[in-house]
Amino acid sequence: MVEAIAFYLFAALTIVMFTITVMTKNALYALSSLAAGMIFISAFFFLLDADFLGVVQIIVYSGAVMALYAFAMMFFDTTKDVKEKNPSKKIVFFLSGMIALLLVIILLTPIISDKVQALHPISDEIGNAEAVGIVLFTKYLVPFEVAAVMLLVAMIAGIILASKRMDESITLKIDQEIEQDEKVAQ
């Protein structure tokens, strides 16, 4: 009974999210509802006891939608109303120090990793998804994290480069309009 209620609830939510995706005119609303719809689709996998596929659905498809989200922010000028505030330099210094400490810990992990034992040794008693998780988060944790950081840096760099190009194109357009107005006035 609970599964049927959950199925109909997630089905309704998925349909609503994809309807918003198709009907809205705002690109960021469309991408947000698309990401929510993908997460609700993963709920169907969890209801069918396919946990690994549910997690892959969230990571792969919702991650791809978030990449689309970043590119939409770059190409559409959706950040024009956003004002940046920096309340305190102490907070920035503290967060920078914590990030540096985290990077040092991540980079020192391979040195220590020979001594680290997995919580559950891989055996025939555990499932395939658990074995993948154990290997991924013990032996291959550092390459996994490095790949994630590289993708994040590439996304941020793309946003910064696109915003600079938008600023340059806006000033160029304004200059062209001023020149046209001057020609008309003469």
From TrEMBL:
What is the protein's membrane topology class?
Answer: Multi-pass membrane protein
Q: What does this protein do?
A: NDH-1 shuttles electrons from NADH, via FMN and iron-sulfur (Fe-S) centers, to quinones in the respiratory chain. Couples the redox reaction to proton translocation (for every two electrons transferred, four hydrogen ions are translocated across the cytoplasmic membrane), and thus conserves the redox energy in a proton gradient.
- Molecular function terms from GO: NADH dehydrogenase (ubiquinone) activity; quinone binding
* Protein origin, superkingdom: Bacteria
Residues crossing the lipid bilayer are 6-23, 28-48, 54-79, 91-112, 140-163
Q: Which NCBIfam families match?
A: PRK06638.2-2
Q: Show the Pfam families listed in the entry.
A: Oxidored_q3 (PF00499)
- Per the record, the major location class is membrane
Name the GO cellular-component terms: plasma membrane
E.C. number(s) listed in UniProt: 7.1.1.-
Q: Where in the cell is it found?
A: Cell membrane
Quote the InterPro entries the UniProt record gives: MFS_trans_sf, NADH_UbQ/plastoQ_OxRdtase_su6, Nuo/plastoQ_OxRdtase_6_NuoJ
The family line of this record is: Belongs to the complex I subunit 6 family.
The organism encoding this protein is Nitratiruptor tergarcus DSM 16512
Q: Which key words are in the record?
A: Cell membrane, Membrane, NAD, Quinone, Transmembrane, Transmembrane helix
Task: Identify this protein by name.
Answer: NADH-quinone oxidoreductase subunit J
Catalytic activity as recorded in UniProt? a quinone + NADH + 5 H(+)(in) = a quinol + NAD(+) + 4 H(+)(out)
